[in-house]
Amino acid sequence: MRLLLVEDSAELAHWIVNLLRSENFAVDCAPDGETADAILSTQRYDVVLLDMRLPRMSGKDVLARLRRRGDNAPVLMLTAHGSIDDKVDCFSAGADDYVVKPFDARELVARIKALIRRQSGGKSKALVCGDLHYNTDTREFSHHDVPLVLRRREHAILETLMLRHGKTVSKSDLMESVYSLEDEASADAIDIYIHRLRKHLASSSAQIMTLRGLGYILRAKEDA
């Protein structure tokens, strides 16, 4: 899962980025509205965390431009005030949710997870592919009730495939889910992560199939 944080307070941004990375999210950060708008015009994100009041361009204007481009990425507005006017402004601009500063780390993570779950089109907290289970609240995988221990990027790839269970996911989409702008993206590394995941799933009825020239798909073996 790849997130963009737009926040002009360096101290708060540092805290949020570390929090989200500890939750296995790939996070990019922009310090002002114009930088965020430039990034959002070329990059795709699973969730955007957008401060309402930003230098160089307001969060409301950044969001308006995002929506005009037809980008429906879930947007969580960060606002310093919890007034009715601020809440109305957030939703009128096209935001999906908002959180009032100062906020608790658990509330922020819970709201992000709820937006991701809503975007995936399912209200269920549990996704299943064969005997592989994924809890969207804890973001944990299990196989026969035993937690599946994965490295961060392996987890990101399997999570993307599980959220799009039964649909083909291109290698470029997997790269976007794994790498932040600070990372050195490698298409060859995706093949290595897929190979490792197949080893993890060797005894599972869930399998990752390669569709040559198209990408990868997660299916239960009986559906393959």
TrEMBL record:
Record GO cellular component, one term: protein-DNA complex
Pfam family, one: Trans_reg_C
Family annotation (CDD domains): REC_OmpR_PmrA-like (cd17624), trans_reg_C (cd00383)
Superkingdom, natural source: Bacteria
GO molecular function, one term: transcription cis-regulatory region binding
Listed Gene3D superfamilies: 3.40.50.2300, 6.10.250.690, Winged helix-like DNA-binding domain superfamily/Winged helix DNA-binding domain
Response regulatory domain residues: 2-116
Record InterPro entries: CheY-like_superfamily, OmpR/PhoB-type_DNA-bd, Sig_transdc_resp-reg_receiver, WalR-like, WH-like_DNA-bd_sf
Domain OmpR/PhoB-type: 124-220
Recorded coiled-coil stretches: none
GO terms, biological process: regulation of DNA-templated transcription
Keyword hit for Transcription: yes
Keywords, comma-separated and alphabetical: DNA-binding, Phosphoprotein, Transcription, Transcription regulation, Two-component regulatory system
DNA-binding region: 124-220
Residues where 4-aspartylphosphate is found: D51
Protein name per the record: DNA-binding response regulator
